[in-house]
Design goal:
Layout (H helix, E strand, L loop, with lengths): L2 H10 L2 H7 L21 E3 L21 E2 L5 H7 L2 H17 L4 E3 L22 H16 L4 E7 L12 E3 L2 H8 L1 H10 L3 E4 L3 E2 L2 E2 L5 H10 L5 E4 L7 H7 L11 H12 L4 H22 L8 H15 L1 E5 L12 E4 L17 E2 L5 H9 L4 E4 L10 H13 L2 E7 L18 H9 L7 E6 L14 E4 L7 H10 L31 E3 L8 H6 L17 E8 L7 E3 L5 E10 L5 E11 L10 E10 L4 E9 L5 E3 L4 E3 L3 E10 L2 E11 L12 H4 L8 H8 L18 H4 L3 H17 L6 H17 L5 H4 L6 H14 L2
């Protein structure tokens, strides 16, 4: 940031112009200043493609956005464990933004997967903060290499959709620091995103968009974030409090509403000119960086090249979960039955604001015909995506399966089962698919299940089928990736970045997910994902890091560079050290292995996981080829967050370093002793349940002990106020009128989907968003039907009338 140029601009801006810059011009644009030659720059949705609206305002419908490349969604991208590949995707996204004069792409989503039912999990990377943070940094570095900004989101503790706009997330300090903040921290320190987007929810009683500790203290001061903090669309609660805490930009436009509040706060002395100028300076820097790119010659993009890149990524996205007796790859000249409507109408991306309008789209049936030959492929729909059971479709599928040598069954989740706006209700596939699978029991022994879903599902068929390929939501080129993997021309190399559980009851957070409409308690603490399953010795369907290959790998020569057999690391003298291991392809085909490094403390005085991921590396090897992988470790990798010292603490102790193919498939390990200046804390006996965790055991007193204070009471629904939701008042006569007017606006906004099932999902999302919308947002999203004085009077009248 050129401080001289910024200061000169600040000196020329009027107070009104400064206040105006701190809010959006409309739904997608920032205010510019023609007098000072500052353009109005555009922000638009991502993160797995460019979702630029072709017309005015916002329309979430797929057909209302420009054609772009639809890459795999984040849950699949994480399965690649390939930072270089994700950075290449970021470069492509940046180029498409440049071609459309978009200055900031809203992504990536880095929120942790606390529970597999989270409705937006398809848009997030992993249940592990290290992997999530590094993938995000790679994505950001790729996009920003093209002089296009990014918006790391949603900061912070936004892990479900139910009442996301007003729910209060109650989380202890250690869990916040170890589980829910590190991915953001890694991305900030490794990539410096131009913007970060605050989440809708409250965190421990304060809205994230105006949280002085999360924003000013941690984000700006401790992590040295240098960019703009923008609200999620409609996440602003108190504009002046937000500015004081570090919330630079409110989106979308609130007209003059909050601009006038800023000006009044300056006049009243509730906001200093310096506090305003600090925010405006960051905004000016963002606009100037964007202007430099906009002033350059507009670039053109080869979308066909991006399609090829999307295919390459999709090939590494797919995870081979099961392959008994080398059932895959399939040999040529077999009669193949392709069953399931997803083969003709694939589920290739998620539903909601991240929805991309692909410039081309492959279908699995056509790609399978291309690979195996049309004469060898026959298709049966089997089930309907509208969930209507048809015995005729079932009979056709059974007849075809009986006549075939091999069955490729396409199963998955439709948009109404997973979408932004609402959480999943269960982990099952749609019943219409399960009914068909049960009917096909006699033929499952020759069936490969191909799954198209954005998050874990239950698989009652897992023991009956020889092969399962998790294709995730593979983007516009995912179909050819599936076909090439099934044929064997591509060797699958994806590994799970999330645990697939056996049931809901085995998940540590399940008893407190998604909480009530007003509060969610993170009672499980650090016991999220594999940290819980592995420590509690809880069996799972498929573990974190799992993924098979058509070849085999051998691990050897695990060493710590530069140390003798005692392997004593003195962190008071050494900043880091390196762990090395050799991997060899001992099979017959080219393939890739993802080596994972986990660390465990031998004698912890605070609850710590049995293993924690602290490094990884992906290596591509020809048959017989070997390669040494090096992973660097620092003192932070051995540390936990000490609430006593309010800092990271790595006690002197013996630690176990383990390398393997998954959390449950450790190939080699070694013990080292580290020496530090840190002292072990005295074991807290009131946290006994957290030393030996078990799902469902985190009672009131244990959680209060973890928090260090009594569990806060949740906000009552009555009396009503500006942060009451439309859903809170919808049962009243006046509230029903507000709901009806708003749902009409949102129904128009969500129009334009390409098929009836997507349209139904959009309506479900629209209803969820309206139910969850705080009354304060009606002047912004109510299409001019509501003003703040009108709402004040409505709230007075509702409170007079009573509950």
């Amino acid at each position: 940031m050129n401080s001289t140029i910024i200061q000169n601009l600040l000196n020329q801006l009027t107070l009104e112009e400064k206040a105006q810059l701190c809010t959006g011009k409309d739904f997608w644009h920032l205010h510019g200043n023609e007098r000072l030659n500052l353009p109005s720059i555009m922000l638009t949705d991502g993160p797995h493609g460019l979702r630029k609206q072709a017309g005015e305002g916002d329309h979430v419908g797929l057909n209302d956005s420009v054609k772009a490349t639809c890459f795999p969604t984040a849950s699949g991208l994480a399965a690649t464990w390939n930072l270089e590949l994700i950075e290449q995707m970021g470069v492509a996204l940046g180029k498409e933004c440049r071609a459309e004069n978009v200055s900031v792409l809203l992504g990536p989503g880095v929120n942790l997967k606390r529970h597999p039912l989270g409705g937006r999990n398809f848009e997030y990377f992993s249940e592990d903060p290290l992997l999530s943070g590094q993938l995000s940094a790679a994505w950001i570095n790729g996009v920003q290499s093209q002089k296009v900004g990014t918006s790391l989101k949603h900061y912070a503790v936004n892990n479900h959709e139910n009442c996301r706009m007003t729910v209060d997330a109650i989380v202890d300090e250690r869990t916040l620091r170890e589980i829910y903040l590190p991915a953001f921290e890694i991305a900030v320190k490794q990539s410096q995103p131009w913007t970060i987007m605050s989440s809708y929810n409250l965190v421990n009683g304060i809205y994230a968009s105006e949280h002085p500790v999360l924003l000013d203290e941690i984000l700006y001061k401790q992590w040295n974030f240098q960019g703009v903090l923008v609200t999620d669309w409609g996440a602003n609660s108190d504009r002046v409090a937000g500015l004081k805490a570090g919330q630079t930009l409110e989106m979308p436009s609130s007209g003059d509403l909050n601009t006038n509040k800023i000006l009044k706060a300056i006049t009243d002395g509730n906001l200093s000119l310096k506090e305003l100028d600090d925010s405006v300076a960051l905004l000016l820097n963002l606009i100037l960086k964007s202007k430099a790119a906009l002033d350059e010659t507009q670039i053109t993009v080869n979308l066909e090249d991006h399609h090829k890149l999307a295919a390459k990524i999709a090939e590494q996205t797919a995870v081979l979960l099961k392959n008994d007796n080398q059932f895959l790859p399939l040999t040529q000249n077999k009669k193949i039955a392709v069953i399931g409507e997803f083969a003709k109408a694939p589920r290739y991306q998620g539903a909601g604001s991240s929805k991309i309008n692909p410039f081309k789209l492959e279908t699995p049936l056509e790609e399978l015909e291309n690979v195996f030959g049309k004469n060898n492929i026959q298709y049966a729909q089997g089930f309907s995506l509208n969930d209507e059971t048809s015995q005729t479709l079932i009979d056709e599928a059974l007849h075809l399966a009986e006549q075939s040598d091999v069955v490729i069954f396409f199963a998955g989740l439709t948009p109404k089962y997973e979408s932004e706006g609402f959480d999943r209700k269960h982990l099952d596939l749609p019943q219409v698919q399960l009914t068909l699978i049960e009917a096909m029991q006699p033929y499952l022994n020759k069936t490969v299940m191909v799954l198209q879903n954005g998050a874990p599902i239950l698989m009652p068929f897992a023991d009956s089928v020889p092969a399962i390929l998790e294709a995730y939501l593979g983007g516009q080129a995912g179909a050819s990736a599936i076909a090439n993997i099934l044929k064997g021309s591509v060797n699958p190399s994806g590994k799970l970045a999330e645990t697939f559980p056996l049931n809901l009851e085995s998940i540590a957070s399940d008893a407190n997910f998604p909480g009530t409409n007003k509060q969610v308690q993170y009672r499980e603490g650090i016991w999220v994902g594999y940290r819980y399953f592995d420590t509690a010795d809880q069996p799972v369907l498929f573990p974190f890091g799992h993924g098979l290959s058509y070849t085999q790998f051998e691990y050897s020569d695990l060493v710590i560079e530069g140390f003798d057999d005692r392997q004593m690391i003195d962190f008071t003298k050494n900043d880091s050290f390196k762990v090395k291991v050799t991997v060899k392809n001992i099979g017959d085909v080219f393939g890739a292995e993802i080596v994972q490094l986990y660390i465990a403390q031998q004698n912890p005085s605070v609850p710590r996981p049995n293993k924690e991921l602290k490094g990884y590396g992906k290596v591509f090897l020809e048959p017989g080829e070997s390669q040494e992988i090096t992973i660097k470790l620092t003192i932070r990798d051995f540390s936990y967050w000490s609430t006593v010292d309010n800092n990271w603490n790595a006690p002197s102790d013996v630690y176990n370093i383990q390398v393997g193919a998954s959390i449950n498939d450790i190939k080699d390990s070694c013990e080292i002793t580290i020496e530090t200046n840190a002292l072990s804390e005295e074991r807290a006996t009131d946290l006994d349940v957290y030393f030996s965790p078990k799902a469902g055991q985190f009672d009131d007193q244990s959680f209060a002990n973890l928090l260090g204070y009594e569990i806060p009471k949740e906000m009552p629904v009555f009396p009503y106020h500006f942060n009451s939701t439309i859903g809170d008042i919808a049962h009243t006569e006046a509230g029903k009128e507000v709901f009806d007017k708003t749902i009409f606006v949102f129904t128009k906004m969500f129009a334009g989907d390409e098929n009836s099932e997507a349209a139904k999902a959009s309506l479900l999302m629209a209803k969820a968003l309206v139910d969850d919308m705080p009354l304060r947002n009606l002047p912004i999203f109510g299409d001019g039907q509501f003003s703040e004085p009108m709402l004040e009077q409505l709230i007075i009248d509702l409170n007079k009338a009573g509950v």
